[in-house]
Amino acid sequence: MRLPVPQPILLVIGAPMKIRHTLLATLLAASLPGFAAAQSFDCVTNNGACAAAESYLSWSLVGNLFTIANNQTAGGGSFVRNIYFDYNTATMSVANPTSGGGTVAFTAGGTPANLPGAPAGFVADALWTANNPGATYGVNAGESISFAMSGVTLASFTNGSMRVGVHFQGLTNGISEGLVTITSAVPEPESYAMFLAGLGLMGTIARRRNSAKSA
């Protein structure tokens, strides 16, 4: 049985040669297994600044490296004060964090012991807190923090076996919010098929170019 060619591949084939390679590179990047698109947080406290908090914060998982980024414009007053990890301690682990620049500095432990406004079932198995003062050593606007994880994949976040909560402070009028990781869908098998088809197409284009040069 002949398999249908995915629509994105058809778009690449039908594109002018000048832009074909750009389209193909984009397609391959989007379909690579483990492609790390930025993920979102869901606000769980509703103290009045949820929309801003959700727009500023993002997270990603690249290999085993979990990163939280504060994407507020540099100079903004928001900062991540506490980071909570709720996970299966029998099969997963979280190492001490590394800074993404600036003055970010966190220490294991701290208060409050659990995420403010934590959803049902969320119990922190590990907690890191910004050194005092939090407005200096927390994850401020334009900064990030990363944690090496073991036994964790994007699917772990999707199925709830790994959840990360953030206590986000310094929002408008001094408001703080609690947020929890949410995920987009894990890539479907069709994505891997698209990736393989893209590799095949790249090989075909390369062979044709070599043949044209030698003709």
Could you describe the 3D structure shown?
Helix 1 packs antiparallel against helix 2 (about 15-30) and helix 2 packs antiparallel against helix 6. It is elongated and about 70 Å long. About 30% of the residues are buried. The protein starts with 6 loop residues before the first helix and ends with a helix. Mean pLDDT is about 85; it is low at about 1-5 and about 30-35. The protein is of the alpha+beta class and about 220 residues long. The strands form two sheets. Strands 1, 4, 7, 8, 9, 11 and 12 form a seven-stranded antiparallel sheet that branches. Strands 2, 3, 5, 6 and 10 form a five-stranded antiparallel sheet that branches. It has helices spanning about 5-15, 15-30, 50-55, 135, 155-160, 190-215, and strands at about 40-45, 55-60, 65-70, 80-85, 95, 100, 105-110, 125-130, 140, 145-150, 160-170, 175-180. The chain has six helices and twelve strands.
Question: What's this entry about, in short?
Answer:
This protein has 215 residues and is of the alpha+beta class.
Secondary structure layout:
Elements: H1 7-14, H2 17-31, E1 40-43, H3 50-56, E2 57-62, E3 65-70, E4 79-87, E5 93-94, E6 98-99, E7 106-108, E8 126-130, H4 134-137, E9 139-140, E10 144-150, H5 154-158, E11 162-169, E12 177-182, H6 189-214
Antiparallel strand pairs: 1-12, 2-3, 3-10, 4-8, 4-9, 4-11, 5-10, 6-10, 7-8, 11-12
Helix pairs in contact: 1-2, 2-6
